[in-house]
Amino acid sequence: MKERISATVSKETIDIVKKVLKKGKHRNMSHVIEDAISEYNDKHS
């Protein structure tokens, strides 16, 4: 089960997320952010 969250980020961060989306690996911004958090967790656990 997934839960909805809200976050405020800079315009630059949104631009980065949009650039990642254009590569086609992710379906939406939520998937990009979820993947980034998972990668961060893998590296820092």
Précis, in short:
With 45 residues, the chain is mainly α. The protein has one domain.
Helical run tally: 2
Which geometry do the CA atoms define? globular
- Count the beta strands: 0
Measured between the Cα atoms of the first and last residue, the distance is: 23 Å
Radius of gyration, in angstroms, nearest whole number: 11 Å
Blueprint (SSEs and pairs):
Blueprint: H1 11-22, H2 29-43
Explain what the structure shows.
- This protein is mostly helical.
- About 60% of the residues lie in helices and about 0% in strands.
- It is built from two helices and no strands.
- The radius of gyration is 11 Å and the shape is globular.
- The model has no long low-confidence stretch (mean pLDDT about 95).
List keywords for this structure.
single chain, 45 residues, mainly alpha, 2 helices, 60% helix, 0% strand
